């Protein structure tokens, strides 16, 4: 090999390396997430009493309590990994060592769509936390000056960001269950949808151009609902063993939410609004559990008994269970749900192409 050839190879490799390093392969440069315990990565845990080590939250992946209400990663974690982003730091637990420019998580375990004032005004049991969706929106506004300095700067930055508003609303339904029948629960749906819509509109005003609004899960299939409802009537359950009335309620909520999203799309043709179909994404796991590697005889059984206490017991193989602790899913279930969102067909329209497959 002569000197000229060696020089040419060295120059070409250096040039290509420089081009690749300067190119940005990420579809999204930052995520901003709002919601409840389904996507809380540490907000509630950081300001409440610390979880004692024996509690098995986080045991399968993190090997210690991670602030997540599961044995491992959540949907938001799998989505972040797929797009080459770090796990989202919790707003209440952020530090100068964390790069909030790549996103922040505002979701708070126990959070409701409706604020505390609504519950007080209507004489309802108060939520477990006052960190409702509107409060989380206020947190976003608080840190916005740390993310971008001018309107032009913010427009450029948020154009490369994805905002996820929810899933949220399950806690509202469970709080109202103590005072209302399933039929009466439909009365609160317009208020919930309005609150989510208002938050979405504010985020558009703040500069968001691509935003996800998820529907809710099939609550009638959740292990915690069987405990709360405790019905022994065969006609209350569908062919798969889920509570019909509560799944119908969620379908009604999701339908109203999709109608609102369609109205938003017409009013804001310049932005992209994505609907995450959590309902059908999760329901398929209950309908054909064996196809996804789950134990068909334990699809409505929680893996973690007494989770949240020092006497918690954990099933022998969490990867064979859909449900983790009653209201929350296992990491195995979250992974499949995330895969259905990122790779299809449960996002409408689709997200941008991910950098990595969810394996």
TrEMBL record:
Signal peptide: 1-21
Domain of life, source organism: Eukaryota
Keywords: Glycoprotein, Hydrolase, Signal
GO molecular function, one term: hydrolase activity, acting on ester bonds
Pfam families, A to Z: Lipase_GDSL
Family affiliation: Belongs to the 'GDSL' lipolytic enzyme family.
Stated name of the protein: GDSL-like lipase/acylhydrolase
Native source species: Medicago truncatula
Species lineage: Eukaryota, Viridiplantae, Streptophyta, Embryophyta, Tracheophyta
């Amino acid at each position: 090999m002569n000197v000229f050839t060696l020089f040419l190879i060295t120059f070409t490799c250096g040039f290509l390396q420089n081009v690749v390093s300067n190119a940005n392969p990420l579809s999204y440069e930052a995520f901003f997430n709002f919601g409840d315990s389904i996507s809380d990565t540490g907000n509630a845990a950081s300001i409440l009493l610390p979880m004692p080590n024996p509690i098995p939250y986080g045991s399968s992946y993190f090997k210690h309590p991670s602030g997540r209400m599961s044995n491992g990663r959540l949907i938001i974690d799998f989505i972040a990994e797929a797009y080459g982003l770090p796990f989202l730091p919790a707003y209440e637990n952020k530090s100068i060592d964390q790069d909030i420019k790549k996103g922040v998580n505002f979701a708070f375990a126990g959070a409701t769509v409706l604020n505390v004032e609504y519950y007080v005004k209507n004489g309802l049991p108060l939520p477990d936390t006052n960190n409702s969706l509107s409060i989380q929106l206020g947190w976003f506004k608080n840190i916005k000056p740390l993310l971008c300095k001018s309107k032009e700067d913010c427009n450029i930055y948020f154009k490369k960001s994805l905002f996820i508003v929810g899933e949220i609303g399950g806690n509202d339904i469970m709080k109202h269950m103590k005072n209302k029948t399933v039929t009466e629960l439909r009365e609160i749906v317009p208020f919930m949808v309005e609150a989510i819509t208002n938050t979405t509109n504010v985020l558009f005003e703040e500069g968001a151009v691509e935003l996800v609004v998820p529907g809710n899960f099939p609550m009638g299939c959740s292990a915690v609902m069987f405990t709360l409802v405790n019905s022994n009537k065969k006609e209350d359950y569908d062919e798969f063993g889920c509570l019909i009335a509560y799944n119908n309620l969620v379908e009604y909520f999701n339908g109203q939410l999709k109608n609102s999203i369609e109205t938003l799309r017409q009013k804001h043709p310049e932005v992209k609004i994505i609907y995450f179909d959590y309902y059908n994404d999760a329901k398929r796991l209950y309908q054909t559990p064996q196809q996804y590697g789950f134990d068909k005889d334990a699809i409505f059984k929680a893996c973690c008994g007494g989770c949240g206490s020092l006497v918690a017991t954990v099933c022998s193989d969490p990867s064979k269970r859909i449900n983790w602790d009653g209201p929350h899913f296992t990491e195995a279930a979250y992974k499949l749900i995330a895969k259905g969102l990122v790779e299809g067909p449960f996002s409408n329209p689709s997200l941008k192409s991910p950098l990595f497959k969810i394996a």
